[in-house]
Protein 1
Amino acid sequence: MKFFVDTADVAAIRELNDLGMVDGVTTNPSLILKSGRDIIEVTREICAMVSGPVSAEVVATDARTMISEGLALAKIAPNIAIKVPLTWDGLTACKAFASEGRMVNVTLCFSAAQAILAAKAGASFVSPFVGRLDDNNHDGIQLIEDIRTIYDNYGFKTEILAASIRSVNHITDCARIGADVITAPPAVIKAMANHVLTDKGLEQFLKDWGKTGQKIN
Ligand code: E4P
């Protein structure tokens, strides 16, 4: 399973990247806003740090302008994955990019039907939004499972990039189902290391160690 980090916070990406935890990065207009940085500048910095795919999102809603925006974003670095929304125009742009051999991440996917279209349009990645579905009383993890089954039924090569990940359980559920990639905020990835029994066990070991009066070096 590949780990993408869902942020445009360069320091947070660097911390995880130094540990070898980063296979790619996803950004979106809201994350660019949060970073307070210029999209081209911050994306260039991220692409120089991370060797895997870095998703940068178009903001036009018509295919023609999406294509020109996507080409501008692709100029930033060879590891850019152009991110387009799962609309008919987005699929048109996706097909155009894919025909030129460019990496495309089709985002804002909320149904299995949409995921089929993304695969047919040649997307490298489809991003189903698990958390936002859960927020709306749908089952985000069930969608990942459905897309996995459908893609496997037909040998679709598009990678399932589980997005809008809110919890450690989302990540382990996605891993169990066989999502190809998860993209999560840095805090959620770091929270994977936490376990109350680890904390409790460590506390006890340190207490007992203190009683031995020994030192290791
Ligand atoms: C995906 O690529 C999106 O950037 C992201 O996962 C959206 O997550 P959110 O629903 O927490 O905003």
Protein 2
Amino acid sequence: MRDGSPANVTRLADYLPPAYLVPRTHLDVDIRDGHTLVTATLTLERNPARDDRPEDLVLDGEHLELLSLSLDGAALPASRYREADGRLTVFSVPERFELTSVVRIEPEKNTALEGLYRSNGMYCTQCEAEGFRRITWFPDRPDVLSRFTTTVRADREHYPLLLSNGNPVASGEESEGDGQGGRHWVTWEDPFPKPCYLFALVAGDLACLKDTFTTASGRQVALHLYAEHRDLDKLDHAMVSLKKAMAWDERVYGREYDLDIFQIVAVSHFNMGAMENKGLNIFNTACVLAHPATTTDAAFERVESVVAHEYFHNWSGNRVTCRDWFQLSLKEGFTVFRDQEFSSDMNSRAVVRVENVNFLVNHQFPEDQGPLAHPVRPAQYQKIDNFYTLTVYEKGAEVVRMQHELLGAEDFRRATDLYFERFDGQAVTCDDFVTCMEEVSGRDLSGFKRWYSQAGTPIVRAEDTYVDGLYSLTLSQHTPATPGQADKQPLMIPVKLALLDPRGKPLALNDQGDTETVVILERATQTFSFPLPVKPTPSLLRGFSAPVILRYDFDETQLQTLLAHDSDGFCRWDAAQRLYFSALSRIIEQGESAEQQLERLRPALEGVIRRAAEDPAQAALLLTLPTETAIGDRHAPLDPARVHRAAHAFKVALGRALDEDWRRLAESLREPEYRADGDAMGKRRLRMLALSYLGLAKADGIADDLQRTFRDASCMTEEIGALGILVSNGLDGAETALEQFAERWRDEALVMDQWFAVQAAVPGPATVARVKALMSHPDFEWTLPNRVRALIGTLVNGNPSAFHAEDGSGHRLFAEALKTLDAINPQIAARLGNGAARLDRLREDLSTSLRTALSEVREGASANLAEVLDRILGA
Ligand code: PHE
Ligand code: ZN
């Protein structure tokens, strides 16, 4: 049977509780040169919840060499068990028993980065979602919770540090006669029952930054952050972020940390951002290391939010976990909502909200409208790894946010208190979460639950009339069909709104004088009326109150009013986006000139610049054009070269027309010395944006200015920012700067990632050849996911006019990369494969070229990659 055939589909509807429970697990992990021996002793008992009384025990395992198996201390003869297709079936087992297996694994050969593997000389694990089965035989599913005791053994000289979940309880030297001297061991005990996907182990020689945190109830928690010795000076920001997150979760959710020690380990080779293993988080170096000299401001912000995200999982994910992987958003959507709120409280709320919405709209919306669309709670999957998606994470967070809005902060808190209390130590469902919201608020949310099961981005159309002092707003909703879901039902959509007078002041909406309200659209069409003294400009979907596409026929004056006066940060930004999109459409569809379009927008943009000092970060957001990908998504068929010409012409016009403003900003926002606070970050952001418009316009003297900024940079934000502008515009000195940069930073992997990314981001078909050459660069490594994402990911996901080069070279390079990668790391290959999801939207010749390239890859693809390609190719 071929991978990806329907027999490999797992369905939510088929869920059955586990046949056996595993109250206790003892692991002994003996790390040797070239292989590792894992002895697992599981205490098993039949699950009373399964009244069909299954007699056989079935365990999961992959890439394991079974050396021995015994039941209650007696070795099992081969006739008592069968090993096949990743399953170990032990026949006719008793009600309660102990099973001990010894397996041999080869972490050194593990390039998939799931299970136990090696990264830069250390050993580490990644078990979510189904990696634990690569370590030992186990019921590898999130609803089997076990108390783990783990002994790790290794050579003391190379692996002085041996970590696992929970608290260290014993350690010692190994005395053995096999000539392998200097070995030691440490035993860790995790008092909290957990699913095996939260298991972790690390063995290595690492530097440690130590601190402590005193919880609200006065317990002292040791905080240990580990990285390679050379990176010790890059851990301070993560430590500060961690302590802020711990305090925030106590204050906002009443959640305290529950072990005596919390550890984070930074790892270079990692498939995702980070992992919330109980008491032992493992992080991609890119999401934990930070230093002004090597790390951009954006990456500093990411570290703060990812550290918080993983920490928050201790309650939303670990103490209360998921019944099955269909419920993934139960922990991820909720935890993303929590980390977004944390970031909003630590930084500028308006800026964080616009950044989060911008990300959702630019990345999750396209996913939800393409061949990979699926509900927040999918009903089926082939490889669960492919469902760590923007829909589960980001749309899932919006679904939790809407419940927060519907209930209000106080009831929402009462509902989460109930949720944590009722389900502590259990594996539960998204429905269980919503039920708590219903019980506390007394609201019927059955209609709301459709947000979890129905895929696709709803379109809300707004139309209005103003007659005899009555303003009537008619809202109608429609969700287009998605693969496998043709018919859609109306959803419960909260629309927050205000109505502005001609001077942009919000009008009173009722006798109490409220100027903002939330209307709930539940049916296909509903009308809401407000008596008003004048015809208003509607400020709709304030704060992006629901993840929908809003269609309303704004006229240009209304948009300028919103941009200039609206108090809602999202609506201001949205108005700017609408102005940009319509100007670009006129260039693309009507062939109007960029200069002409710019003149229409000029007064509005000058208004934003005039107020830039109030909040430079927000001004930067308002003055940033939509990406070429986002512009392309508004035009059918997708023609990336044409989109690039229009976007580029418009940006050049913007650079030229406001030349003086950009120069003034670039000069006045320069800071005498580096500061790390939000104010300084906002200024740097606007300053780099001003420089980029000057670079695009090839303004007089800008190459020199940028070379100087590059050379005298006070931090990486300026250094890489200047380099990127030089390179993407082919300005004088660009190639020299690239060489100098590589020379300076050759030993800093995360900086070199940025060096690769900057080059892959240069628009236009010539970049394909450059990326191809860089694939043979001595520092390019297929086994390093960050590097692959930096080079190939940037080309495929961030550079449409190069990826879809007319000669098909980008498509061929993509296919080649997928093949190479799939043999090394199928998860990363599948993720990169998502980059082809716009295939059917492309101009026909481009679509054919991409299809041809991908069809070839489909032959012999891994199960992970095959699932993605089949959906995209429509197989
Ligand atoms: N659970 C991780 C998170 O916090 C993501 C992850 C999934 C990491 C799978 C590794 C593997 O979002
Ligand atoms: Zn998460």
Protein 3
Amino acid sequence: MSNRQNIAPNDLRAFWMPFTANRQFKSAPRMFVAAKDMHYIASDGRKVLDGTSGLWCVNAGHCRPKIVEAIQTQAAEMDYAPAFQMGHPKAFELANRLVDIAPKGLNHVFYTNSGSESVESAIKIAFAYHRVKGEGSRFRIIGRERAYHGVNIGGISIGGITTVRKMFGPGMAGVDHLPHTHLPAKNAFSRGEPEHGAELAMDLEKLVTLHDASTIAAVFVEPVAGSTGVLIPPKGYLKKLREICTKHGILLVFDEVITGFGRLGTPFAADYFDVIPDMITCAKGLTNGTIPMGAVLVTSEIHDAFMTGPDHLIEFFHGYTYSGNPVAAAAGLATLETYKDEGLLTRGAEMARHWEDALHSLKGLPHVIDVRNLGLVGAVELEPIAGAPSKRAFSAFVKAFERGFLIRTTGDIIAMSPPLIVSKAQIDELIGGLGGILKELE
Ligand code: PXG
């Protein structure tokens, strides 16, 4: 019998959902059908307060008029233009607007369609940059434990998530890892940047001694690790990494897929920490989550190193069919305008203190073993149920959805990152709601 006869239009089996407990979801689906500003509307008509900006991407809030209109207009005017050997004005305009808000020196933009692709592109730029400069022996990339750099082979190789790393084969060759900086014994319940742990950056010197600088192309770090539970870097840590990379001619890449576009109260985390990397990978907030688009921002030094040889030849053999797609570029331009009109790239700084106070009010509630925050990112770590890791936080997530709040969980850590338009009252509502749930958890 044909498959088709078995699948009703509303059957949930065909869609193999990403990063989802498929069987649990399909036994009790949680569906969103509409969204506006700070809220989703669930399929049963309930309003759900968005405590996570979708998946850390809807920084300006949902269905913002300028962005909606720009997408509609562009889709009708020119849906697609070839990305290779042809151009269209909006991709160039967006690159210029991005450079305007990027940290000083990051003057060029390579487009991708996601954070994962931004990471792969940055890895390839790092390899190729050293090669065009005559240092092709720099084939090694240094990542970090507990890092998330997307899902492709390069990203999972330099990433540090064990469940992912054990599942998909040996990965990319020539990778080593720095230790993570999560030190709960010393830093639990830190407000903002923790005091202890900057010395962990010195492990990079050890890796340089082990492998020799001449084999190392780049160090990749998330300035604040998001997916693995909001790990805030210790004071001074990123500055030390920068110093060591500079000393040894190693490129420093900040993966700002989550921290980019105002999450910490500055346009990029590089601004917040006052550390300028050689490349920034971004995505998500670039188009406010509407149309897939990512980018790698690079220094002129990197870009210009490729601009040699006969000028009819392609300088960098890399790119995607949808690099700089017109509808995505239009969405990106309207997103950056919305951020500018409403001061959203720095609004997090104004709200950070209220957010921090609200989050830390959860200290002392049952099962809470740590609270972490920076800008408009926060995490509440719960003591796992013995023998059933992740279960306690997952029940908090399900209960929160039932009560009208969207939160995220990773292991037994609850992560929150509301849209940057959030009000103080909405922060209180979200954190108050979470507090109520924590009191009821097993
Ligand atoms: N780098 C970083 C630092 C990320 O956080 C990616 C790369 C990959 O981006 P794409 O666009 O390929 O998904 C990410 C993505 C979560 C969560 O809830 C985090 C991400 C994605 C989905 C969920 O922690 N980060």
